[in-house]
Amino acid sequence: MVAADGTLLEMNPAGLAMIEVDSAVEVIGKSVYSLIAPEDRETFRTMNEIVCQGSKGTMQFEIVTCRGNRRWMETHAVPLRDEKNGNVVQLAITRDITQHKQSEAELRRLNRSLQTLSNCNQVIVRAKQESSLLENICQILIEVGGYRFAWVGFAENDTHRSIRPVAQAGYEDGYLQSLNLTWSDTVRGQSPTEIAICTGEISIVQNILIDPKYEIWRSQANLQGYASTIALPLKDRGIAFGVLNIYSTEVNTFDADEVKLLEELAQDLTYGIVALQNQRDRSFAETALRESEASYKQLIELCPEAIFIQSEGKFVFLNSAAIQLFGATKAEELLNKQILDFVHPNSQTLVRERIKYLREVQQPIPLLEEEWLRLDGTTIDLEVVAAPFVYQDKLAAQVVARDISERKQTEKALHKANNELELRVAERTAELITVNRQLQAELDERQRTEEALRVSQTRFEGILGIADDAIISINACQGITLFNQGAEKIFGYSAAEILGQTLEVLLPQRFAQVHRQHVVDFGKSPNLARRMGERREIFGRRKDGTEFPAEASISKLNIEKETVYTVILRDITARKQIERMKDEFVSVVSHELRTPLTSIHGSLGMLASGLLQPDSEQGKRLLEIATDSTERLVRLINDILDIERIESGKVKMEREICNLAELIGSAVNIMQPIAKGAGVTLSISSLPVQIWADPDRIVQTLTNLLSNAIKFSPGTTVWLTAQQQEDEVLLTVKDTGRGIPADKVNSIFERFQQVDSSDSRDRDGTGLGLAICQSIVQQHGGRIWVESVLGEGSRFYLTLPILTVSQTIEPEHSLTPHSAPIKHSALVLVCDDDPIIRIELQTLLERGGYRVVTVATGKEAIALAAAQHPDVILLDLLMPGMNGWETMALLKERVDTKDIPIIICSVYKPTTTSQPSADFVDWLSKPVQESYLLQSLKQAIAKPCKRVCILIVEDDNDLAELLITLFERHEFETFLAKTGREAIRKSQQVNPDLIILDLILPESDGFAVVDWLQQHNHLCNIPVVIYSAKDLDESERKRLKLGHTEFLTKGRVTTQEFEQRVMELLQRITYQPTEC
C-alpha cells in the first residue's frame, strides 16, 4: 500500500523479493518514488494521485531495485480507505514482467532485423549500379535496422594495403577518417574490420568499453556513442574483397540469431556486388565483341587477298576479293557449292589431304601452291594458307588465297633475263657511262630550263622552301631581296639577318670585287642567263667565316623596269670529297693491280722466251714469284669485292648459334703455322659463350687481326683474349710491335689505309683487311676500334652480342620398339602418325629382311634415333605437333643423328618448292611400291663398289682441264659437259656420283640444269658443288638445291681449298662395304 504522498505503507514478502530487500524495515515509511526508474517516476506519481482520489489504474513501469538492478513491473491499483485515519491510499497488486518485456524486445529486434534483410534484398534485386546499392544498404541498416552507423569498405591492393570506404550511413562525425584502416599484418591491423578482411571470418566486439581488442579506437567510438560493433566480410570464391561494418548504441547487440541474419545479408550483398560487376564486365565484353566482329568483317571485306571459309566441304563465306577471284559477281553464285568442284585435278589429292589434316590435327597449314578453277573453267595458280576455324558453331577452315598465275608464268623468264643481264654487266658498263653522261647533260639542260621557268613564276613561288640549293635574288644595287631556306642551311644566316645586305657578305673578300663587276657586266649583256664558275673555281663564305666550293648560275628578269638577278648556288663540298676519294681509290687500285701483274708478266715472259728453264733454280724462283703475285692479285680482288658486297648488303650473314671458344680455336689453328714461321707465340684466353653469328666471317675477322699482329711483331708474343661484359663479349688482340702513329689511328679502318705505304709490298698487304673487319663486326651489331702507342704496340678491340637464350631438344624418354630386332640385319626406323601405314611398312620391310622399329611422332623419332642409331629413317611429312620438316631439321642438328640417311614417305610429290633442304637421300610418294622402297633402302644403306664418277659442267677449257687433272689424280672417273644441254644429256647417260656445276653456260644455264634434274626421281638427289663466279642470294641458293649441295665461289677459294672441300663431300656421301 502507498499513501497519497508516495510513502510506502505496507508490502508483502513477494514484493520485498521483487525489490531485492531482506526486511520490510528497510523500505516501509520511505518514499516509493525512490524505487521507480527516473523515466517512469512522474507517470507513477500521477497514477498514484488519481487512485488516491478514488479511481482505478493500471501501469507498466520499470523499477530500480535496492541492489541497483532494473526490473519491469505491471501494477493494478485500486483506492482503499485507511481504517486508522480514514485517508484513501493505493492498494497495488504488482507482478514482475521483466522476462515478458525482454521477450517482446527480442521479438521486436528480430522483426526489425528480418525487415532489414527483406528491404536489403529488394534493393539488391533492383540495383543497377554498385554505388547506389551500397548507399541504400547502409541507409536501410540505419533507418530500418535501428543501428547507429553502417559503412562498406573495399580492400585495396596498394602499397599500404588500405581499406577504402565506398558507402556509409548514420552518425559518424569524422570517425572513418580517424581509423586509418589497413589489412596488412601490423599491430594496427587488428580491428574487427581488418580481421574480417584478413581472415574472411566475422569479427564482433560486444562491449567496446571493456574489450581490449578495441583499445586503440575506443575513445573515438565513445565520442560517437558506439557500444558494440560487427564486421562481416564480403567474400567472392572464398576470398574477402570487402567488409560490411555495423555499429550499435547498445552492448551485446549482436547475438547468434542477429549475427546469422546479418551474415545472410552480407552474403546477399556480396552476390549483388559480384552480379553487378559481372553484368558490367559482360556488357563491356559484349560491346567489345560486337566492335571486334564488325572490325573483323570490315577488315576481311577490305583485304585485297581472297579469303573464304569452308565447312563440310562447301563454301560458307567469301569476301569480295574471293568472289572476284573465282570469276563470280556475287557470293550466291559460290555459296554452298562443293570446294573440290573448283580444284584442278592436279591438286585434288593435295587439297583433300589438307582438308583432312585441318579436320583431324586442327593445326594451321603452311604456305602451299595449288591449282584451282574459276566458274568459267579457266585454271588459276594460287598460294594458299589455311587454318582451322569455328564458324556458326561448326568446325570450319579459313583459307587465304593469292593469285600467282602471272608470277608463275613470268618467274622463269625473269630468272633467265636476270642471268643474261648479269652476264652483260661488264660489257654494258661503258655504254652506261656514256648514257649517264648524256643523261647528266640532259639533266643540266633541264635544270637550266626549270630555273628560267621559276624566274618567270614570280620569284620561284612554291619551290623556294623545299630547294636544297641556295636561291638568292638581288636588285640592281646588289642588295639581297630573297634568301630561301636552302641558302639559310648553306650559309648559316637566317633570312632576317641577310635581307638588305649586299651579296659581298656571302663571298670571300678576295673575290668580292670580281663578282660585283661580273654582275654589272652580266646586267649589260643581252644574255638572260649565264653559268658562273665554268672556267674558274667559285667559293662561298658562311656566317662562321669558313669557305666552301660551289657551283652557281645567274639569271636576270626585268619586272616593271626593274632588273632582278637570281643566283642559284650549290654546295659541292661533298662532291669534291667523293671525287678526291675516287681518284685516290683508282690510283691505289691501279697501282696494286699493276704491280703483281707486272711480276706475273715478267716472270712468265722470261720462262716463255726460253731464256730460263722451268726446272732450274732461277726458273722455279720465277714460278714462285708468279704464283705469289697471282695469289696477291686474287686476294686484292676478293678483298675489294668482299667489302663492296658486305657494305652494300648483298652478302647475307649466314648466322647460326656459335660457341665463341670454338671460333677462337679455329682462328688460332689457321694462324698457328704462320705464327710459328714468324717466331711468334700465340697466347689465348678464350670464353665458352654462345653468339648468334656467321662463323666463317667471325673467323675471317680474327685471323685478319691475328695476321696483322704477327706481321708487325715477329719474334714476340701476340695475345688474343675474350671477356664478358654484361650482354656482350669483348675480344682483344694485343701485340708489342711498332704501333700506329696518332694521326693514323682514326683512319686505319678506311680502305687502302696502312701505317706505311711500303707495307703493301714488304708485308704483303692490300690495306683492305681492317675495312673488311669493321664491316663484318658492324653487320653483327658490334664495334671495333684500336688503341696504340707508337713503338710499344697496339690493341685491337671488338665487341659481339652474346646469345642469352639457347634451345636444345633432348629425348623425353626411352622408347620400346614395336618389334624385336633381328641380329646382323639393317635397322629401319619408321615414323608415321597413321597406324595402318606403320603396320604395312613394318610388314613389308620385315619380309625384306630388315629390322624395324616404328614411332608415331617426331619427338619419338628423335629420341629413338639417338638411342638406337638406325641405319635409315623413313619419315612422313604431315604429322600432328612436330611435322616431318621440323623433325628432319632437328635430326640433322644433332651430332649423334646428323649422318643417318632419311627417306621421305609422303603423299606430296617431290618439287622444288617442297624441298627446303637437301638432308634426305630419297623421296617416295605414297602409296609406296615395294620394289621402289627396297631399292631406295639398298642405295641409302650402301653404294656399289665402283669408281667415283664426277660430271664437270664448265665452258672454260683451261679450268675444265685443271679440274679433270685434279680429279684423275685421285683415280676418279670424270666426264666433261661444256653446255647446259650437254650436262642434261650426260647426267642421264653416266648417272654421276657428284656434279661440279658452273652457272654461266651456253645453251641453258646452270639454273635450268638443276630445274631439269629436280624433276627426275633418280637424279634429284645427286650431290652438287656449285662452282661459279656469280654471287648468289638466298632464294637462288634454295633454287639450286639438289642432294647435298655446296657453294664455292671462283676466285674466293684456292685450288687446294676446292680440292679439300670436294674430297670431304665425297667422303660423306660415298661408302665402300667391307666385302667389296
From TrEMBL:
Gene Ontology CC annotations of this record: plasma membrane
Domain of life of the native organism: Bacteria
Positions of post-translational 4-aspartylphosphate modification: D876, D998
Keywords: Kinase, Membrane, Phosphoprotein, Transferase, Two-component regulatory system
Protein name according to UniProt: histidine kinase
Domain BRCT: 323-373
Domain PAS: 292-362, 456-509
Cited CDD domains: HATPase_EvgS-ArcB-TorS-like, HisKA, PAS, REC, REC_hyHK_CKI1_RcsC-like
A GO term for molecular function: phosphorelay sensor kinase activity
Protein's job: Photoreceptor which exists in two forms that are reversibly interconvertible by light: the R form that absorbs maximally in the red region of the spectrum and the FR form that absorbs maximally in the far-red region.
Catalytic activity: ATP + protein L-histidine = ADP + protein N-phospho-L-histidine
Gene3D superfamilies: 1.10.287.130, 3.30.450.40, 3.40.50.2300, Histidine kinase-like ATPase, C-terminal domain, PAS domain
Domain Histidine kinase: 588-804
Source organism (scientific name): Dendronalium phyllosphericum CENA369
InterPro entries documented for this protein: BRCT_dom (IPR001357), CheY-like_superfamily (IPR011006), GAF (IPR003018), GAF-like_dom_sf (IPR029016), HATPase_C_sf (IPR036890), HATPase_dom (IPR003594), His_kinase_dom (IPR005467), HisK_dim/P_dom (IPR003661)
Entry-linked Pfam families: GAF_2 (PF13185), HATPase_c (PF02518), HisKA (PF00512), PAS (PF00989), PAS_4 (PF08448), PAS_9 (PF13426), Response_reg (PF00072)
Lineage, opening ranks: Bacteria, Bacillati, Cyanobacteriota, Cyanophyceae, Nostocales
Keyword Kinase: yes
First-tier enzyme category under EC: transferase
Domain PAC: 57-109, 366-416
